[in-house]
Amino acid sequence: MYDLHHNTPEFTVSEISQTLKKTVESSFSHVRIRGEVSSFKVHTSGHAYFTLKDEGAVLDAVCWRGSVSRLQVRPEEGMEVIATGKLTTYPGRSKYQIVVESMEIAGEGALLKMLEARKKKLAAEGLFDEERKKSLPFIPKSIGVVTSPTGAVIRDILHRIEDRFPNHVLVWPVLVQGDGAAEQIAAAIHGFNNLPSPPELLIVARGGGSLEDLWCFNEEVVVRAVADSTIPIISAVGHETDITLCDFAADQRAPTPTAAAEFAVPVRRDLAKHLQHHHSRLQDQLDQKLSLLESRVDSLKRGIPDLDSLMGDWTQRLDDWSERLNMSWNTSLKTHHNQVSMISSRLSHPRQTLEKWESALQGVCKRLEPMGMRSINDNQSQLQRWGPLLESYSYERTLERGFTLTLDAQGNVVTSANAINAGDTLNIRFKDGERKVEAKEKVA
Known about the structure:
Layout: H1 13-27, E1 31-42, E2 48-53, E3 58-63, H2 65-68, E4 80-90, E5 95-105, H3 107-124, E6 142-147, H4 152-164, E7 168-173, H5 181-193, E8 201-206, H6 220-228, E9 233-237, H7 245-249, E10 252-253, H8 257-264, H9 268-303, H10 307-346, H11 350-392, H12 395-400, E11 405-407, E12 425-430, E13 433-438
Parallel strand pairs: 3-5, 6-7, 6-8, 8-9, 9-10
Antiparallel strand pairs: 1-2, 1-4, 2-3, 4-5, 11-12, 12-13
Helix pairs in contact: 4-8, 5-6
């Protein structure tokens, strides 16, 4: 019997895997697949791995590191996307997969769905709470603008500020659309906050566009940067009908970039008119107040009596008291003058007094002179008697009798043998002179 199996070609596992790989890659070298992102993760190598799924199937997907950096959107769990690439197989696990080269959101409905989910998440964290919002400065000293350096947006803002209230404006140029835009916008906001002299107000602005064009202002990194800013922020993204998550996190939303400039600074001419108006009102009120005060002063003056009339009686009394005082003073002087005259008549002249005391003094001197002479004579007699006695008691007379006087080196009298040490120099005084001697030993 003929065996058909002998005519079937035989393959190794590797050969069949390579054949299948070539067949799949040649047949599906460029495909666009719509599906929901699931299990997205980025390996340490920089390659991204995830799956695309729908109601009936699951397809593995890989995006190499070079392609990951060029993706317009960052895949998130549950995001519906259209992935463009080629199908291939992975022989090591006997599966097929798509190698993603680019990716886009699958329609506005998917974007809105993801936007709503992200809005609820960030709102639950309190990033949109009114309590977090800061008041805008009335007249900021400087204004920072985060936007594209080209285009009508920055020109409109600068022109509007210059027209309303010229101010110092710092522009931080960034991408406002496409890959890397969100990171640049967030970095600009952080950069302004970290400046040594940061501006007092920030404007984050961009012109109108589709939901995809404005998507970078819905990225978490931008929303969190806006919410964390210590500088008040005005969000002016898109047209009046465009709403982004950046608007909810900002301290003030402006419908257009031009409106943001109007929110940022007042109209200087209007301020001048306003001040002039208040100045006029203040001047009028001041004039009225002064007029009222003048009327009250006039009324008070009429109620006050004339000063001359009020002081007339007291002036007359003062004159009367002054005249009486003068008369009393003259009388008192006359009285005291009479008393002095009476006393002086009883007083003797000083010369008479001196002559009287001089005569008395001469009498005393005559009596004292004999007494003094007798006292002097008595003292002289006693001195003549005591002199020879004192002479006999002197130490010179003692030396003449054979005694000596011993002095130490300092000239002090030595009265005890115990006061002399061996080697001491002594002076021995005799009646006819002195001799120096040296003590040989100390007396025991």
